[in-house]
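Subject: complex prediction, re-run

Hi both,

The earlier run crashed halfway through, so I resubmitted it with identical inputs.
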Amino acid sequence: MRIVIAEDSAVVRAGLVEIITDRGHEVVAAVGDADDLLVAVDQHKPDVAVIDVRMPPSHTDEGLRAAIEIRREHPGLGILVFSQYIETRYVADLLGMRSAGGAAGVGYLLKDRVANVGEFVDALSRVAAGGTALDPEVVNDLLQATRHGDAVSSLTSREHDVLALMAEGRSNSGIAARLVVSERAVEKHISNIFSKLGLLTSDADHRRVLAVLTYLRS
Amino acid sequence: MAVSAAGSARSRFSQMLRSLFSRRAWTDLGYAIVSFPLALVGCVFTTVTCSHPVLLFVSTPAVRGLGTVNRRVAAQLLDEHVAAPAPMRIAPHVHVRTPESARLANLIISAGGLVKLRFGRLEVTRLPAPRIAELAASENIPLTELKTNKQWLESAARDRAGWRARGYLVLKLPVSVVGLATVGLFWLGGLAGLTAPIWQWPQHHDHSFGQLALGVLLVPVGAALLLAAPRVTNAAISLDRALIRGLLGPASLAERVRDLEQTRAHAVDDSAARLRSIERDLHDGAQAQLVGLAMKLGLAKEKLGAGAENAVAGVDLDRAAELVDAAHRSAIEAITELRVLAKGIHPPVLDNGLADALRTLAARSAVPVELLIDITDRPSAAIETIAYFCAAELLTNVAKHSGARHASLEAVHVPGLLRIRVSDDGQGAASPDAGGGLRGLADRIRTVDGRMELSSPRGGPTVVTVELPSHA
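This time it finished cleanly. Structure:
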């Protein structure tokens, strides 16, 4: 897999390069700001771009704006954005990208997760495969802020866990592995959740994520 | 009737006679005499130093010093105790050198600073150094020099107490001339009259009588002058007293209040800018280092796990893996804690303006929030921060305590005033004493002369209105 990294901190950039090359992927460019990122993407046509939200010059949301531009210019490119804070505004923008943009994957992680090698690599591969990778913290935020608190609280605690993992973008097998249950059990939980929340089931992972997220945010 | 009039005239006379020998009369006399050289020195110094701008500015401490001397003399001799004015405030200004002066100057001006270009460097006032560094960093403008200097000349030129002292020193001269003339006419004239028979005593027989008669005639005139001298001197000096009270004392209360308001606004803005730069430093420094560290530990952990089969004799790989794992987890915990800490210092979402930040808050609230935001011009950073924390705390209270099903958040910025209003349809009966949060908010609002109004009858609805000035 060919990857472009955009991160202004040299330490973190070096760490990302190390982790990604360790997994046998190729870092075709590692840049320090949004302008260089756009140039690098045009030049190298990578599979995935890993982007820090806060970069020079203004250190606010350069990375995110670059991500949206990349999605417009190169719709097939997977995008994994990470930042120090979760802001729901970013989530909305990213999910907007997701629904508008066809098949390519989108991820949004906290830096805490990026530092956790296993979770970062897992998210990266999900995004590369065209899936969704949302930080548990993002999902937690969405669950807390949802207008459907009553319906969500009618779920059993196991179903609640499954809902959260689904919203993060995990597949049935991923959820099963995480909760140490069989895939059949996960399927059963999921159909319970969908009927309790009044959602239509869908097979494709990312479409399912969208259904769940749309529900939580509506 | 005639007797009592004569009696009162006699008592008046004895009173005047006594006052002639009172301490007051002599200190007044002393003051009137000392005043003149003092006034002469003060007036000459002030006029000379006013002749050139540089001298004018440099002389401010000296002028204030002369004011102090005059105040002390008045306190000593006249019992006129006037408090000293506040010491001169020297406002800092920041020297900035950069190859891109014009661009940086524009940034600084748009952030509310004042810029002068002097000797190839920028002199910035009304904007603290950290804020300037931040602005430069945000546009990638390199700084070759960034130094906070005391703004000496400008502070001296703007020193109100100095100007008032100058006014006093100039006006004192004519007043002291009047005082000295009084002394000459009444005291010396009186004495001369009283002693006229002695120095008019005839030395030659030829023109003896006329002279003697003149000398004797002058005695009552001299006595009258001398008797009147204490009062007249006192009257002449009272003008000086009034000048001292008006010009050498502390500035008027209104001026003082304006002064304090300005310095407070400065302090509030400065601390907001500092907090923002601390947050930025944490993010760019400690946090980045920790993330890097955690990544390396994460990789090391995996390598150790994978390397178990080709273990080296004498190396306890399991224990090493455990330690690295623990270190990895600690590093990640530290990142999380640092994130929470930094967010409490300055919510980064505010970087894009209060309106955006409030929208994010509302989107995150567990109780549905109806938004009404009308903020076209941005208030100052300090005000935005306070407004944001107010809205966050109030919405949290709604979700936690009110039992409301709906809430609304209104934020309107009209020139000079930012109004935040949070209302909910909950059970009401909220009190500022119940939640420590509300009390803390009220304190914070007061630091910028804002106000908070709470209306929460039992059974609801609860409406909290916060009004803040646009600028601290």
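The interface with chain A takes residues 137-140, 280, 283-284, 287-292, 294-296, 298-299, 301-302, 328, 331-332, 335-336, 339, 342-343, 348-349, 351-352, 356, 359-360, 363-366, 368 of chain B (CB under 8 Å).

- K.
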